[in-house]
Structures are given as C-alpha cells and as structure tokens.
Amino acid sequence: MKQFIIRRILLSILILFGVSIILYALIRSMPGDYVTSITAGNPNVTPETILRLKKLYGLDTGIIEGYIKWLGQALRGNFGESFIFKRPVTEIISSKMWISFSLAFTAFVIQIIIAVPLGIISATKQYSKLDYFVTIFALFGISLPSFFFAAVLQRIFAIGLGILPLQGMVTARYDYKGFRLILDIAKHFVMPIMVFVVTGIGGLMRYSRGNMLEVLSADYVRTARAKGLSENKVIYKHAFRNTLIPIVTMIGGSIPGLFTGAVITEGIFAIDGLGSTGLLAMRQGDIPFIMAFNIFIAVMTLLGTLISDILYAVVDPRVRLS
Amino acid sequence: MEKTNVEQQKSKKKQSSHTSVDRIITPGQLVLRRFLRNRLAILGVIILLTMTIFSFIGPFFSPYGEYEMFYKEKITSAIYVIAGNNDIYSFNDGDGALRWHITTEEKIVGQPIIAEDGNIYLSVEGSKVLQISPEEGTIMETHNVGDPSEVVENIYEPTPVAPDNLDIAVEDGVIVATSQDTKVKKWDFIGYSDIIGDPISDRSGYLYAVSDEGELYSIRADRGILRWSYKVDAEGPYSVMEGPIIMKTIDSKAQPSKEHWLGTDAMGLDVLTRLMYGGRISLMVGFIVIFMELILGVLLGGISGYYGGWVDNLIMRIVDVFNCIPSIPVMLILGSVMISLKVPPQDKIYVLMLVLGLLGWPGVARIVRGQILSLREQEFMVAAEATGLRPMRKIFKHLVPNVMPQLIVIATLGIGSVILTESAMSFLGIGLSFPYASWGNMVDAVNDPEIMRNCLNIWVPPGICILLTVMSFNLVGDGLRDAFDPKMKR
Questions:
Q1: Mean pLDDT of chain A
Q2: CA dist B301 to A23, A57, A263, B284, B354, Å?
Q3: Nearest residue of B to residue A265, measured between CA atoms
C-alpha cells in the first residue's frame, strides 16, 4: 500500500510536469499579453515603458526560458504574484477555493442524499414506473446545459417571481450581520446549488443504480435468496452494503474536485469563487494565476483518483493495490 | 425479481413458439431486436431524426437566410424647407441631418402639397406638377396639370399639436408660448434672425420654425430649448413644412408572428432559420469530433494494449496528462489565441473541433486498451498469432472489431457530451461567432437582461434543442449498450 502510494505520487509529479509544459506553452502563445492589454490606448506609453513592464511581469523571456524560470519558482512553492490582483497567487486560490467548495459541497451532499437512495430503489424495482422516472430524470440532468438551466432559473425565480436574488453573494444595499447575513448568503446560493444538483445528480444516480443492478445479479444474492431470507434482508443487508463500496470510493474521489470551482455557473451567478476568478484571469491574460489555477485543478484531479483508489482498497479488503 | 423470472420464462416460451427451428437469428438481428424493444431508445432515435431533418433539410424550406436581416417600416416626420423659387430641402427630424436638396429648373409656384404616402407635389411654372419622393428627393413623375390637387388623391393633413396646452405664436420674429388656461407666458424663443411664419410641429411634438435669413430651428415645445438649427444656402423667402416618411429600421426582438414563427433576435435575424443552421453546426461538430476521438483513441489505445511494456506506459502517461488538462481553461486560452491570430469566424469552428478531438481521445484510448488487454489473451488471438499475421493487422482486423460494440456505445454517448461542450464554448464566446449561428451562441443572447425578461422566443428554443439532442444521444447510447449486452434480460 505504502509502495503503491509513493509510486503514484511520483507518477503524479511526472504527469504534472507534462501538464505544466503544455499549459505554459499554450498560455505564452496568447499574443495579447497582459502588458499589451494594460498599455493599449495609453498615449504616454513609450517602447521603453513597455519593455520595462514586460521585464517586471517576466514576459521578456522566450517560452522555454520562461518555463524554466516559472518551474524553478513553482518547485519552491512560489507561484508568483497575480497581475490583476497584485497579490500572491497561492493566497488568492486558498481564499477563493473555500467559497467554491462551500457551494459545491452543499450541492454534493444534497446530490448524495437524493441520488444514492433513488438509484438503489430504482434498481431493486427495475422497469417500474419509478425506475423509468429515475432513468429519465438522470438523463435529463446529464443532458441539461448548465448555462441554459441557470438562465431559466434566473428568469423564473429572480425576474418572474422575484423571490430570489438574480446574482451575487450578498445584498449590497443592506449591511446584514450575524444570522441575517448567513440567511442572505443562503438565499443567493439557492440557484447556483440548484444548477449544481440538477446537472450533477444524473451521474451519481446512474452509478448507484448500475452498481446495485450488478450486485443484485451476483451469486451471493442468489444464495441469500435461496437461503429463504426475506427480500428486505437480501436487499438491505446483503446487497446494499456491497453496493456502497464503489459509491463510497466514487464520493471520496469526487471531494478534491469540489475545490476547483465551476467556471460557467459561478460566472453566470457572479459568485466570487475560484471558477469565476479563473475566468476573469483567463480573459485578461494573468499568466501566474492561470498557471497556478490549472495546476491546482490537475493536482485535485490526480488527488481524486488517488483517494478513490486508496479508498477502494480500504473499503474492500479483497482489493490489493499494486 | 421472481416476477421478472416468470416474465422471462413466458417470453422464452413465446420466442420458441414464434421462431421455428429453421429460422436462424444472427447476433446482429438479436441486438437490433433488443434495441427495438427499448421504447426510450426509439424515442431518442425519432428525436434525432427529427433534429437532423430539421437542421439539414429545414433550411431549404425556410424562405430566409442564416444572416438575412429583417427590417420594419416606421413612419416618421421629414421636415421640408422651401426656399425662394427653386429650392427644396429635406431634413431628418431627429438630428437635423440634411437628407436631400434639389433645385428645380422651373420656378416653384405656391405651396407644395404632401400626399398621405409622403410624396411631395410641387407646382412649377408652365402649369406642371412635379412628384417628388420623400426618401431620395428624386422627381418621380411630371404631371401636366395646373393644380396639384388634380393628381393628389389623399392629401396629408399635418396634425396640429398644441404641446402642454400652449398657444404658440410668433410676435416680432420671436416665438412666444403662452399657457392656454392661465394666459401666462411660458417661454419665448429668440433665433439669430427674425422668425417668420407659424411654427409647425412633427409627430414627436417638436416645433420647427424658419427665420427670414433661412435658418431652420428645431425647438423643444415644452421649454423652448433649441435642439438643432440649420442654415439654408438658397435665397428666400422661406417656408417650412412637415410630411410623413417611411423609415426602415431593423426589426429586432420581434415577437413570433406568421412571417417569423419564433420571432427575430436582437440583430433582426429570423430565430427559426438560425435554429436550423445552428443545429447543423452542433450535429456536425458532434460527429466530426467523435470521429477524431475514435481514430486517435483506437489507434493509440490499440497499440498501447497490444504491445504493453514501455509503449503502453508511455501512451498511458500521455493519456494521464491529457486527462488532467482542464478543458474549459484550455479552450478559453485558445479562444484568445484565435482572436489575436485573426482566425476568420467561419474557421474558428474547425479549430474548436480539432481541439475538442485532441482533448477527448484519452477516454476512448483507455477503454480500447482495457478491452484489448483482456482480448489478447483469448484463444482466437493465439490462433491469429499462429498464422503469422503482422501486428497491425492483428490489432485492427482481429482485436478492434471485437471492441466495436463498446466503441459504438462510447461514440453515441460521446456525441452528446461533445455537443454540450461545444454549446458551452459558444456560450462563452469561444466557438462560432456572429454572424454564424450555433445553439450555444444563440442562448448567449440571454446575457441581455431585456431579452431574458421579455424575449423567451430568442433563447429558450436553442436551449431546448440542445437538451433534446443531447438527451436523445444518451437515450440511444444507453439503448445500444443494453442491446449489445448479452447478459441483458430484455
């Protein structure tokens, strides 16, 4: 196990290396760099100023030289200072990721509460009306474009009924404190969470349904039935526990991804999380932030698969990691 | 569970009674039969066929083009100044721009008459009447009659507007407005030179007056403030008239009507027609990207699974790297690269397809590799080995066809997700851009608050099209998976 984890971490470093090379090359080939965009239209800017600014922002080097410089700093944990926020990138990411996480985590918990039981029940009653409903609803969620659903929700609840705020995180007009502030934020989070839940629930629902179906066709379930156990006992004592194994590993593996934020949904609802900040940075060519943001996503993806692999072995003693 | 077993037995009995001994069902037929029994998948097929017909054949039946703008006619006022004996000027009522100016050969006699359709009838010396169009000021016809009223059918009656119950009069070259009720002077207007003749008013209620030196004033009737003025070159005497003119404006955000079943968008383009062209893009992108993903994925996954060892290790690490690259940020970056490289809008979609294909193949490669790893240990591969075939032939003739069912399923499900990604890209403004339509950039119109509130006909239909199409691909993909699965009971 220990060996497995060490091997995986070493591999991950190799993968991150590859990811960072591709990303850096891509980002630096964006011709409209930050210096050009901040100096555009300013008549007082001389070529010398541009050169000085480029040097200041580290844009005066070639791609390879720049990458080596970036890598040298990044390995020491220094991801540089964001061009647009003028603060260390790591500081921005660590402060914004909690907003994204709180939103995504709430949605994730709601998803689990709804999806896992429904998936399992619909598997036990395959081809029933409930099963059809679950199947169609799951597909509906998977197929729904998040930006369209967000717009529909805004139109209905914010503009049509006027019961929820259109976007943002707090009502700027009121200076709420304490419990009222929490209530206010919660109100602003309702619609983004709805988008997360509906567009994300399908996968989990289908996953738990599919697993339950697989478990129900396993030999030990037939044995349990043959022993003459009641159907309830067969399903909830024998099958259910086994179906939890893959579900738990999937849930565990999804947690790191909750930190990375959702670019589109956060952008539409003007949530000041990591996703919308990333979108802003990418539109403005803020290289240190884009690099760190993407590496952060890559790390979280790798961490997610690692966690789910480890959990798999922990939950199911039959599995041996090698 | 017991119930299904009974049903299964029943259906088996049915099958055995239906199929006589000599009728052999091929595996393909079996798959087809299982697929046809899946009602949801059939629904998906029907929706997809409808969408395909709608987007690929529909445009031939649509009377409009993808970027054909529509205009609507709006009647506004034109202000005419008749100067001296030969000149007539036409002004825009809004900003006082000179629309046209003509000089007639013969002397103008008396006041012109304006018809209901805006045509100006000008009597000139030699008992002739010139008919002048209000838009360009061209002489359309010359009537040989003495008096315009003989040829004008409907004479335009300017609506005398008394704004805010004011009495407007000219006293000693100054316009004076007095309240009708209290007889108190509200405002007066002094021009650079003396104003002559009564002021007239246009459809928006602004006043127009002309001075003895040929200066035209446009005045706000409520406070007597000058909006604009224009000095006419020609000799006096001057008089001012108002007439109707039909202006063409873009017919934007029109509600659904007989001509435009889904109305028009903010640029005055027919939404239904654009929906068809947008569907072409979405479906085409879906198919082409999946095709690229399959080719790359099968090639690399097949090689990786067959050879194993360091080749496998290398390809799988590449797969891992591509898996870790977040697609939306990369697309955003590429979007800005495309803008600065000045990629023309119609070519952007090809770049988008290429990149989506490059980012999407690792999933296919993984599945192909996994399948081939298990297949290559089977007996038929030992037999293939014995015949001494080349490795490439073994991979692509013997191993890959066995992965076909999975590939078809991945492809069908994959098209749905590609369409979803493409629409998200277009929504973010990276994909196809104006004037070309795609479902994603049509939903993008929702960023205009007014469209979100009032023009559901612009942004809801493309959203529903995306939803239906993606959902159908998923339904069909699920149906195919179930149909290919020999363990399936139904």
A1: 86
A2: 24, 42, 31, 25, 19
A3: B424
